[in-house]
Specification:
about 375 residues; alpha+beta; Rossmann fold; six-stranded mixed β-sheet; six-stranded antiparallel β-sheet; 9 helices
Length: about 375
């Protein structure tokens, strides 16, 4: 295993700045996930670590060694990609051992390594299967085993689960965590799926338009997002945002006022501020004991219910005039997550509260977080 250090890594394609001056220290043995929307620069960053692309500026170190100009094979890495390219005419054993045999490892060494890898990804008993006789998940495990046998210092995985169905993806998430624990190796992982990032990683690196927006453990990104982008990207369904302004009395907006002492929260009257609150921190007034510190009540109209079995999402409108926007939650729209049996129906007038301790304030201009949890 080895650390991976990016120092000022920048990648420009003609007029696209794919990766913008990225500094990142991935510790020895750490599982770090690059997450962000499509096109934000995740794969390009990974390719710079892998040696598949040369950064325009900046350096990449693996295990303290500058590898910026080294080809992939000299970097001590193994890669697993979304598209699994197994040799169709070879059985599992030959697919997994192919690279080792090419490098002229002894028969005994090859056998031992394949056996160990098969054990980690639970492929025992399948060594003579052909790829066409296997499910997508099994084939992906073969691809991972092929990466394991090289005993790399760093695993690089770019959307390895993207082509699997939802159930298998969830299963593979636990497999990958187990793999990380058993191999005790550094894993750098790319996904646009924040659920994968949240569940597996020691730290997530959230990227927007080539820039690192936050690098922290998953729950820190969830509870204390640095900025509006991370707040909106991490968490599903995402945080409610209400744009407003600070007055001497606190926060005010068209439909929602939250009183507080501006100085105590580090904001100034006149400042444009966006209030953020997650769906699970909005409660029906008759359940206000679920909020550690409930706000005053807000009148809302129930628009749409989404019963999920164990919970229910309730879309609320502030006013009958406010149309639910197809592009996301409109200004007066709030999403609330309640228990499955709550007695609410579309069209009901309801009173709701927010939990003050779970309210986030962001500077609307810069997007930077000001406070997580009101005093
Ligand atoms: P992600 O992996 O987050 O989806 P990428 O790293 O693939 O994003 O791409 C980042 C940006 O760089 C995108 O705008 C993409 O169009 C651009 N890009 C990626 N590869 C190339 C290339 N070979 N030539 C030109 N532009 C590219």
């Amino acid at each position: 295993m080895a650390s991976v250090t990016l120092d000022g890594v920048t990648k420009e394609y003609d007029d696209v700045l794919a990766v913008d001056d990225m500094d990142l220290e991935i510790r020895d043995g750490e599982f770090v996930t690059f997450v962000g929307p499509s096109g934000c620069g995740k794969s390009t960053t990974m390719e710079a670590i892998a040696g598949l692309t040369l950064p325009t500026r900046g350096t990449v170190e693996i295990g303290g060694r500058d590898v910026t100009d080294l080809p992939p094979k000299d970097r001590g890495i193994s890669m697993v990609f979304q598209n699994i390219a197994l040799f169709p005419h070879m059985d599992v054993y030959d697919n997994v051992s192919f690279g080792l045999r090419l490098r002229k490892y002894s028969g005994e060494e090859v056998e031992q390594r394949v056996e160990r890898a098969a054990d980690v990804v639970q492929l025992e008993g399948m060594m003579d299967r052909m790829p066409e006789e296997m499910s997508g998940g099994q084939r992906q495990r073969v691809a991972i085993a092929r990466a394991i046998v090289r005993e790399p210092e760093v695993f690089l995985m770019d959307e390895p689960l993207a082509n699997l169905d939802a159930e298998l993806r969830v299963h593979m998430r636990t497999q990958l965590q187990r793999l990380h624990r058993e191999l005790d190796t550094t894993i750098v992982y790319v996904t646009h799926d924040q659920a994968q990032a949240m569940t597996m990683s020691d730290r997530v690196a959230v990227i927007e338009a080539g820039e690192l927006k936050q690098v922290d453990p998953p729950l820190t990104c969830y509870d204390e997002p640095n900025n509006l982008f991370v707040a909106g990207f991490i968490g599903s369904p995402s945080m409610n945002f209400i744009e407003g302004e600070i007055t001497d009395e606190g926060f005010t907006s068209t439909y929602t006022d939250v009183p507080f002492d501006p100085a105590a929260q580090g904001v100034e009257p006149g400042q444009a501020v966006t209030l953020g609150v997650r769906p699970e921190d909005v409660h029906l007034q008759w359940n206000d004991e679920q909020a550690a510190a409930p706000t005053d009540t807000y009148g809302r109209i129930v628009d749409v219910l989404e019963p999920m079995g164990d919970e229910m999402f309730v879309y609320l409108l502030s006013d009958e005039d406010v149309e639910a926007s197809a592009e996301g939650r409109g200004e007066g729209q709030t999403l609330m997550n309640v228990g499955p049996g709550e007695d609410v129906a579309a069209g009901d007038d309801v009173e709701v509260v927010f939990d003050r301790e779970k309210i986030h304030l962001f500077d609307t201009g810069t997007g930077q977080a000001i406070v997580h949890g009101l005093e």
